[in-house]
Amino acid sequence: MRIGELAKRTGVSVRALRYYEEQRLLPSDRSPGGQRHYPEQAVDRVRMIQQLYGAGLSSGTILYLLPCLSAGRTSPPMLDRLVTERDRIDRQIDDLKGARDRLDGLITEATDVWPEWEARRPA
Known about the structure:
This protein is mainly alpha-helical.
C-alpha cells in the first residue's frame, strides 16, 4: 500500500510515517518512481509504534526493542529493558490514578457546594 493509504488506515500523518521510516522503525519498498510502498503488516507495526510512543518510549528504545516486539527474538539485555519500561509504565499508571483520585475528590467537594452543576454536567 502507498503512504497515503497507510496514513488513512492508521490515523497517523504522512509526515509521522516518513519520520518513522527515517528512524528505521518502519521499512518500506520503493517503486521505480520513488514512491513508498508498505506491506499489510505495516498497519499493525504503526499502531504498535504509536502505542509505545504514547507510553513514553523513545524512538531509540523502540528501535532497540523491535526485534523482540515484532519477531519475538530477545536477549537478556532486551528482557532487562522490557522489564524496565514495563515498570516505568506501571509507575506512570499509578501517578495517573493518583491524579484522577485527586480530581474525583475535588469534583465531589465542588458538587457538594454546587449541586445544580450535576444537571448541566458535560457528557
